[in-house]
């Protein structure tokens, strides 16, 4: 009987330790990129972008297309930098005018 109590106590302590360590880890990044789109996307096909979390192993930019898809791109690529500049300029109120 004492051996059963000891085994149960050890099991409960192990489960508590695992639960605690999993809780301290926190939620991981929602989206990371491991393959990248190397084909330049026209600026009229992209409506937005987000940068992936710093906790991802590779830095990336997720480009949102007019079709609602997300494509991974390298933030160091010249065309991606130009596209980000274009999108940022579009999103600033008063930056562009129809006059």
UniProtKB/TrEMBL annotation:
Belongs to the intercrine beta (chemokine CC) family. Residues 29-87 form the Chemokine interleukin-8-like domain. GO terms for cellular component: extracellular space. This is Chemokine interleukin-8-like domain-containing protein. Keywords: Cytokine, Secreted, Signal. GO terms for molecular function: chemokine activity. GO terms for biological process: immune response. SMART domains: SCY. Residues 1-23 form the signal peptide. It comes from Zoarces viviparus (Viviparous eelpout).
């Amino acid at each position: 009987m004492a051996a059963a109590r000891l085994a149960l106590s050890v099991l409960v302590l192990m489960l508590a330790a695992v639960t605690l360590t999993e809780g301290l880890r926190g939620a991981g990044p929602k989206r990371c990129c491991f393959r990248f789109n190397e084909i330049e996307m026209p600026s009229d096909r992209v409506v937005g972008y987000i940068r992936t979390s710093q906790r991802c192993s590779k830095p990336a930019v997720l480009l949102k297309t007019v079709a609602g898809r997300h494509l991974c791109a390298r933030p160091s690529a010249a065309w991606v930098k130009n596209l980000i500049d274009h999108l940022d300029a579009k999103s600033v109120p008063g930056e562009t005018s129809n006059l």
